[in-house]
Amino acid sequence: MDWFAELKTGVETAELVDAHAHNIVALDSAFPFVNCFSEATGAALSDVPHTISFKRSLKEIAELYGSKSSLDAVQEYRFRSGLESVTAKCLEAARISAVLIDDGLELDKKHEIEWHKRFVPFVGRILRIERVAEKILDEMITYADKIVGFKSIAAYRSGLEINTNVSTKDAQEGLNDVLQAGKPVRITNKNLIDHIFVHALEVAQSFDLPMQIHTGFGDKDLDLRLSNPLHLRNLLEDSRFSRCRVVLLHASYPFSKEASYLASVYPQVYLDFGLAVPKLSFHGMLSSVKELLELAPIKKVMFSTDGCGFAESFYLGAKKAREIVFAVLRMHALMDLSIPEAIQAAKDIFSENSRQLYKIKAVSGSFGSNGITSLSPTKLNINASLQGISFVRIMWVDASGQHRCRVVPQKRFHDVVVKNGVGLTCASMAMSSHMDGPADGTNLSGVGEIRLIPDLSTKSVIPWAKEQEMVLADMHLKPGIPWEYCPRETLRRVAKILKDEFNLASRMSFFLLRSVLMDGKENWVPFDATPYCSTSSFDAAFPILSEVVASLQSLNIEVEQLHAESGHGQFEFALGYTTCTNAADNLVFTREVIRAVARKHGLMATFVPKYALDDIGSGSHVHISLSENGENVFMGRSGATRYGISKIGEQFMAGVLNHLPSILAFTAPVPNSYDRIQPNTWSGAYLCWGMENREAPLRTACPPGTPDGSISNFEIKVFDGCANPYLGLAAIIAAGIDGLRKHSTLPEPIDDNPDNVKDKVQRLPQSLTESVEALEKDDVLRDLIGEKLLVAITGVRKAEIRYYSENKDAWKNLIYKY
């Protein structure tokens, strides 16, 4: 059918990023060419020509070379043409645009990584941790090369049941055993291997590098029983490493179903099917990849060739991968996926998933061109001081939504803070927007101290101050024990209850202000006075806006669009969809970037909800969808669904609507927030929802590409720039969970301006006082957010109410805080 022709074209033309391979060897290497077709060694190699995989693969190589289909004829062609010629032919036919090489495999006369760059636009290095340890012990050398990830072959040595709490004493005894065995060093002691593995994970997490792990089948050195990825469960459950992404190699064959399960329940687990494709029979390859996709999100499954020694192995891996992925996606296109979704799945599997995981940036989509740029050194150079980093900002967001930081010298950060954090008073989560001290009624005071533990996966060079880095922190009672008031931990804890993945995109508005002197005093006035989507406004602000976008891109934050808004000097940025914790992190970093770049240009950027009472307000709207295994489950799948929303989507959204008055205490946290939430201002002043109704606080949306009659997401408009994003999103998820548990349903949508039918709809809280009263009565949020944190939040909010009611013009100072 034409459908499948379109899918086949999409698969055949998709770019390939080979995420796991090995060095190519010289023509006269002692490494046998027959190993291109098998993992067998020694006498077992004589049986390889009798395997189905060998016969199929040899025929395909012979067709590529135009030679007879025999091993002798193919080898004769290789020697006659020369290694450079056959390598160029194979890799050009494979259409691989990037390859990541594990050069820790010892091969006779293997070419160095630089040699491979003649044939592929981008070549990255994967560091095999056990081999590095062996070489250090053999030669006392160190490595400072750029790398894109780590790799472990613990499965070959002592198995995957890693003891993450192995003692230093046991590791030292293991080291002594290894050294006493003499050279060449081969590390097989389990305690030492586990010790190396755990510390390598710490380094990988520190520099946001993935860890590839050999799982499943291999050569005869492997005990297959110990290579089942289910043995990794204790490691995956260890909270210290919950942010370190691990890649299970080789489809974990014959444990592909087990690998798929792990990737479906652990957010840090990814899958790679190299080696299984092309080394298995056609049915074996097909069933293995099919099993990976049975549970695992498509966004977590990746292609690689596991090419090793010979260019032909890269070609075969690429060719068979296209055939197998097409065959699997064709089956799904009959039942589960539309053709465009299947084509996108192919692109994700072949390149996009690896690009994101290994941080490979594309500058051109054409094969054979310089389509890949080098990786960001700020993320990959293990010795950060080489980049001129002097200081590290350790950042957190308090209960009032203010961004705060502690700054430490770079050396102390790595020597002390990474492990032990920095001290912080417990009063830090009781401060209001007007006072750096604990608010009454929070049950927090200056007595007691917590630890700010940096989340190293968020560490980045500061775009506007490149001699500094910034990192977001979690709040712990002591390292490894989260504090119950920690906003980031609260979001993670609540999101974990939700079985579906919670994805969102942010739309944030802000004002650009310039300083003028009036009667000898500094005043901040709007940057301009142009209308909505004004081209002249965009031109005037372009130097600032373009620098903001470049800074966000350097932080891997996607900007989908930007424009001038309706207010004087007001602009809006739309960020791309991502998971909830990443979205909250991105929101924090985006606020930081916008304010800093504006300051650099002599302006002030403010996210205050109502900068001028006679002008439009600024929001920080969030667009929310739910997904399961990479599929949008908020969207209705047939005409029988209510409003084009799935049953799960409706229940979740109904829960949010029911608890919206209480949620406002988190998402609209200062009295000024309610000056913004007024009728006829597109801010959502009534308790209702509507389909593409911008006057409703909850608006369902169907952007371009959404099937007719279906809804892909819903927008929450009553979220502003003073909100702590972690607490705001935690409250929204908690409300959605309540809707799912109670199987709540939505009332009829409002298809008119709610202010025109105000007799039919209820007003949302018109003050912070009203939203706090609603929150104090909300047992559901109390249970899911936590009693102690809720007491602190209400104490801070009541302090805001008192202060701003007694100081009528004090709201004007909010521009210096938000």
TrEMBL record:
According to the entry, every stretch annotated as the GS catalytic domain falls at 487-818
GO aspect biological process, one term: glutamine biosynthetic process
Query: CDD domains from the xrefs?
Result: metallo-dependent_hydrolases
One GO term in the molecular function aspect is: glutamine synthetase activity
Which InterPro entries does this chain map to?
A: Amidohydro-rel, Gln_synt_N, Gln_synt_N_sf, Gln_synth/guanido_kin_cat_dom, Gln_synth_cat_dom, Metal_Hydrolase
Outline the extent of the GS beta-grasp domain.
Answer: 387-480
- Which family does the entry's similarity section mention? Belongs to the glutamine synthetase family.
The name this protein carries in UniProt is: Protein fluG
The species is: Sesamum angustifolium
